[in-house]
Design brief:
The complex is a heterodimer of chains A (191) and B (180). By secondary structure, chain A is of the alpha+beta class. Chain A contains 3 helices and 10 strands, in the order αββαβββββββαβ. The N and C termini of chain A lie far apart (61 Å). In chain B, 31% of the residues lie in helices and 32% in strands. Chain B has 3 helices and 9 strands, in the order αββββββαββαβ. Chain B has a 5-stranded antiparallel β-sheet with strand order 1-2-8-4-5. In chain B, strand 6, helix 2 and strand 7 form a beta-alpha-beta unit. The chains are: A alpha+beta (191), B alpha+beta (180). Chains A and B meet through helix 1, helix 2, strand 5 and strand 9 of A and helix 1, strand 4, strand 5 and strand 8 of B.
């Protein structure tokens, strides 16, 4: 009986400790880990056959069927430029220029990594849809409330993050991914 | 060794094993669930064409709302599978994923054949594909480490007016056992 108790308690403790530590690590890390450029982060091992144990697990949770860096590079931002988590109760200003890619888009996702029901008819801004100034720069307002000009809708009352997709990135992205020009994320107002 | 030391050591070794096993298994389980879900709707070794992603789409995390997706769940256990996908501007890619989520192949519209099509023959590692390659020299040959995998075609949607064109490209796309 004593022996059974020994092994049963050890098995339960190992299971809880092993599975719990794995869940904690995967929950505290996202695809934004690795290289950072401003508020945006990327992991260039995404999708590759060289990806490690944790990268594969995180891809399955946060970016299943993501392409490898040779085809597409993904940057994700979960905070604004002051480091505060992005909230649907605030309005943000994205300021930038065309991303260095053959085609690009920036999409907002809810905490479950799916598109949010915002009531608007779009979920992203892209190279195709964005309105730019004569010098090629753009401003996008990220808000739960409809905005004049470029508007990326989010949902009030919940956190969100944004993914910038670089399809066929320029060589500079591979040479210096930490210097990739990505839009600044400036908080304007909060409810 | 004292009993409490033996217990602690057993727990630590067991925890490391559980931690590694759970982290290793997670992508395979999630990919298998996704393939079962998609395969259940569209079948195996044939394309299914997803509607444009909205907040109601929950099959795969972080879908792009700007892309028109065609998905083929692959089973190459009985022989190679042929994929042919015509491309469109401004961006199209054809990619193949192994059952552990690795992106083992991708080709985009820039590198499509002269007829504007990306052709791929997907086979199990070690399978004989010499005849298949000889039959179509322009096709890329991709090997999967196991029987199962997934092919995904991404086509950028520039406007709703493009729907008819994209639907026509989807209809002429092929994912089928080689020689069928």
């Amino acid at each position: 009986m004593k022996k059974l108790l020994f092994w049963a308690s050890a098995a339960v403790a190992a299971l809880v400790l092993g599975a719990g530590s794995a869940a904690l690590i995967l929950k505290s890390n996202t695809l934004a880990g690795g290289v950072r450029s401003g508020s945006w982060g990327t992991n260039l091992a995404i999708g590759s056959e060289e990806a490690g144990l944790y990268t594969r697990a995180m891809v399955s949770l946060y970016g299943l069927l993501a392409l490898s860096k040779e085809e597409t590079v993904y940057y994700t931002a979960g905070t604004d430029d002051s480091g505060a988590p992005l909230s649907g109760d605030c309005t943000y200003r994205l300021e930038g220029k065309d991303l260095d890619a053959r085609w690009w888009s920036i999409t907002a996702y809810g905490p479950d990594s799916f598109l949010m029901d915002t009531g608007a008819d779009h979920y992203s801004v892209s190279q195709t849809s964005i309105a730019k100034e004569a010098d090629g720069s753009f401003t996008v307002r990220v808000s739960a409330k409809p905005q004049e000009g470029n508007w990326l809708p989010v949902k009030a009352g919940q956190r969100f993050d944004m993914t910038a997709r670089f399809y066929n990135p320029g060589p500079a992205i591979y040479e210096s991914p930490e210097a990739a020009p990505l839009p600044a994320i400036v908080k304007e107002t909060c409810e | 060794m004292k009993p409490w030391m033996k217990w602690t050591l057993t727990v630590l070794v067991g925890a490391v094993l559980v931690h590694v096993a759970a982290t290793w298994a997670l992508p395979r389980v999630i990919m298998n669930v996704a393939m079962t879900r998609i395969g259940g709707e569209g079948g195996i070794n044939r394309f299914s064409h997803a509607a444009r992603a909205t907040h109601e789409f929950k099959a795969v995390v972080r879908p792009s709302p700007d892309l028109n997706y065609s998905i083929c769940v692959l089973d190459v256990g009985a022989g190679p599978v042929r994929i042919e996908a015509p491309v469109s501007a401004p961006y199209t890619s054809v990619s193949v994923f192994a059952a552990n989520t690795d992106n083992v192949f991708a080709q985009n519209d820039k590198d499509a054949a002269a007829d504007g099509t990306v052709s791929v023959i997907v086979a199990r590692e070690g399978a004989e594909t010499a005849d298949a390659s000889a039959a179509d020299a322009s096709a890329n040959v991709v090997y999967l480490p196991g029987d199962k995998g997934l092919a995904l075609v991404r086509r950028v949607i520039t406007s709703d007016a493009q729907n008819a064109q994209l639907n026509a490209l989807r209809e002429s796309s092929i994912c089928a056992p080689l020689g069928s």
